[in-house]
Design a protein that fits this description.
The complex is a heterodimer of chains A (378) and B (126). Chain A is mainly alpha-helical. Helix content of chain A is 70%, strand content 0%. Chain B has one domain: Rossmann fold (3-Layer(aba) Sandwich). In chain B, 44% of the residues lie in helices and 19% in strands. Chain B contains 5 helices and 5 strands. In chain B, β4, α4 and β5 form a beta-alpha-beta unit. The interface between A and B is medium-sized, with 16 and 16 residues.
C-alpha cells in the first residue's frame, strides 16, 4: 500500500516536472470525457424526443380536433365513430401517445353528453383495451399500471373484480393508491368502505391525493368517515380521515378523544385536537382545559389554546384570561390565550375590556401582534 | 336592414376550450371576440361594444375577478352580462364570482348544450 502511494506521488511529481501524464490523470481525463459525452447524449436524446412529440402533436392535433368537432359536436354522434377517417397509425407508439393526450385534454374540457361521447371515442380507438391489457400484464410495473388506472378512471371503464382486488392489495403503495383513486372516481361514495379498508402504508402526499379525489367528486352524502379512525393505524391514515371529517363537518368527539387519549403518536393527538377545534366540538371545551393542565409539551398546549378559540362557546374565557395574565408563562402561550379570547366574542367582551385597561408595555405589544390582520391560524 | 349579430367576448387561456367554445358559439351564429389573457380581454372591453362576456378565472396577467371588476367600472360595457367558466368548484370561488358582479357560473368540464342555453338565457339567439 505504502509502495503504491509512493509510486503515485512520484507519478504526480513527474507530471508537474514534465515527464508526461501519469495513469491517474489519464484515467481522470477519460472518465471526465465519458461523463460529459454521456450527459450531452442524454440531453440531446431528451430534446430529440421532445421535438418528435411536438412535431407529431402539431400534425395530429388539428386532424383530431376537426374530427371531434365534426363527428362529436356537430353530428351528435354518440358511438360508432368513423375512426378510419382519421388515418392514424395507432400501432405507432408516438402516435398513440399523442392521440391519447389530445383526447384526455378534450375529455377534461368537454362535459355532459358530449363528454360521454368523447369517452366512447376513446374506447373505440382501442385505448381502454390497451389500458386493460397493460393492467393485466404489467401489474408489477408501477408506472404503467398507475397510468393505465388513471386512463380507465377517466374513461369510467370497469376493471375485472379479481384484477382490481389484486391491485388494491398490491405490495406497492403507489399501485394501491392509484387503484383506490380509480375506485373513488368510478364508483364515488360506494367505494368508500372498500378504499378505507385497504388503506395502509400511505405517505402524506398519498393522503392528500386521496382527499382531493374524494372532495373533487360531487359527494354530499352522509357517510360516516370517523368509523375508520383507529389508534392502531398510522398518522397519515388517521390524518386523512380527520381531514375528511373536517371538510364534511362530521363531528365525532368520542372518536377524536380516543386518538388523543391513546397517546400513541404525538402528531396524531395534535391533529385530533386541531380537528376538535375545526369541528366546533363544544362538548369538548372543558376536557380540553383539563388536557392543557396535564400537558407538558408547548406545541400541544398551543394547539389546545387554538382549539378553544375556534370552539368559542365562552366556557373557557376565565381559563384563557388566567393564562394571559400569568407573566411566568412563555409569551407564545399568552399570545394564543389572548387570541382565543378575542375569538370568543361576545362572551369575552367584558374581560377584553378589563385587559385593555390593565396592559403593560409588553402585553400591549403582544396584543398588537395578535390583532394584526395578517396573523392567521392554520 | 340586417340585424346586428350579438357579440360575445370569450376569455380563456386553454387552447382546446377556447377553440371548442369558438366552434360551438360560431355555429349558433354569434359574433366572437377571443382573448387568451386578462390583458387582451381588458383592452377589448374598453375598445369594443360587447353583448356578453364569458371568462375563465385563472388567467395570465389579470384574473377573471379583475376582468369583471373592470367591466363593472367601465363606461361602455358596465351592464354587459358575464358568465364565469372555471375549474374552481368550491363555494368560495362561486360566491366571490357573483359578488364581483358575474351573472352566471359554469363549472368545467363544460357541456356545449348547457353553454348555449345559458348564453341564450342572457342575450337571446344570435
Amino acid at each position: 500500500m505504502l509502495r503504491t502511494l509512493t509510486y503515485m506521488m512520484h507519478d504526480i511529481r513527474a507530471f508537474f516536472e514534465g515527464d508526461g501524464w501519469p495513469i491517474l490523470v489519464i484515467a481522470a481525463l477519460v472518465l471526465s470525457v465519458l461523463f460529459w459525452t454521456a450527459s450531452l447524449i442524454g440531453i440531446a436524446f431528451f430534446y430529440y424526443r421532445d421535438y418528435r412529440y411536438r412535431r407529431a402533436y402539431s400534425r395530429i392535433y388539428p386532424a383530431l380536433r376537426d374530427f371531434i368537432y365534426e363527428h362529436v359536436l356537430a353530428e351528435n354522434r354518440i358511438s360508432h365513430f368513423p375512426v378510419e377517417k382519421l388515418g392514424l397509425d395507432l400501432n405507432n407508439k408516438l402516435v398513440s401517445k399523442v392521440v391519447r393526450h389530445v383526447l384526455h385534454e378534450f375529455i377534461f374540457t368537454i362535459g355532459g353528453e358530449k363528454g360521454q361521447s368523447m369517452r366512447h371515442l376513446f374506447n373505440e380507438l382501442g385505448f381502454d383495451k390497451e389500458a386493460q391489457y397493460e393492467i393485466r400484464h404489467s401489474a408489477t410495473n408501477m408506472v404503467t399500471t398507475v397510468r393505465s388506472l388513471a386512463n380507465l378512471a377517466l374513461m369510467k371503464v370497469s376493471i375485472q373484480e379479481k384484477i382490481l382486488d389484486q391491485l388494491l392489495k398490491s405490495p406497492q403503495v403507489e399501485i394501491r393508491v392509484a387503484a383506490s383513486k380509480y375506485l373513488l372516481q368510478v364508483e364515488g361514495e360506494h367505494a368508500f368502505d372498500r378504499v378505507f379498508e385497504e388503506l395502509y402504508g400511505i405517505s402524506q402526499l398519498h393522503a392528500i391525493d386521496i382527499f382531493q379525489t374524494i372532495v373533487q367528486g360531487d359527494y354530499f352524502g352522509d357517510y360516516i368517515f370517523s368509523q375508520w379512525l383507529d389508534v392502531s393505524k398510522s398518522f397519515e391514515v388517521n390524518s386523512l380521515i380527520m381531514d375528511l371529517m373536517v371538510y364534511y363537518q362530521e363531528l365525532n368527539e368520542a372518536g377524536l378523544w380516543e386518538l388523543i387519549n391513546a397517546n400513541k403518536e404525538t402528531k396524531t393527538a395534535l391533529k385530533a385536537v386541531n380537528s376538535l377545534g375545526k369541528l366546533l366540538a363544544k362538548d369538548s371545551e372543558e376536557r380540553l382545559q383539563e388536557l392543557y393542565t396535564g400537558e407538558s409539551s408547548l406545541t400541544a398546549k398551543l394547539e389546545i389554546l387554538k382549539a378553544l378559540g375556534r370552539i368559542g362557546q365562552g366556557k373557557s374565557i376565565d381559563f384563557l384570561y388566567r393564562l394571559f395574565i400569568d407573566s411566568n408563562l412563555p409569551l407564545s402561550l399568552r399570545k394564543h390565550a389572548y387570541r382565543s379570547l378575542v375569538a370568543q366574542k361576545p362572551y369575552s367582551t367584558t374581560l377584553l375590556r378589563k385587559i385593555d385597561g390593565e396592559l403593560d408595555s409588553e402585553e400591549s405589544k403582544l396584543i398588537r401582534s395578535v390583532n394584526h390582520p395578517m396573523v392567521h391560524y392554520i | 336592414m340586417w340585424d346586428k349579430k350579438k357579440r360575445i367576448l370569450v376569455v380563456e387561456d386553454n387552447e382546446i376550450l377556447l377553440s371548442t367554445m369558438q366552434f360551438v358559439l360560431l355555429r349558433e351564429g354569434y359574433d366572437l371576440l377571443l382573448a387568451k389573457s386578462g390583458k387582451e380581454a381588458l383592452s377589448l372591453v374598453s375598445d369594443e361594444s360587447i353583448d356578453l362576456v364569458i371568462t375563465d378565472l385563472a388567467l395570465p396577467f389579470a384574473n377573471g375577478f379583475e376582468i369583471i371588476d373592470r367591466i363593472r367600472k367601465s363606461n361602455t360595457n358596465n351592464q354587459v352580462p358575464v358568465i364565469i367558466i372555471s375549474g374552481y368548484r368550491d363555494d368560495n370561488s362561486i360566491v366571490e364570482g357573483f359578488e364581483v358582479g358575474a351573472n352566471d357560473y359554469i363549472k368545467k368540464p363544460i357541456s356545449p348544450s348547457e353553454l348555449i342555453s345559458r348564453v341564450r338565457l342572457r342575450i337571446g339567439h344570435a
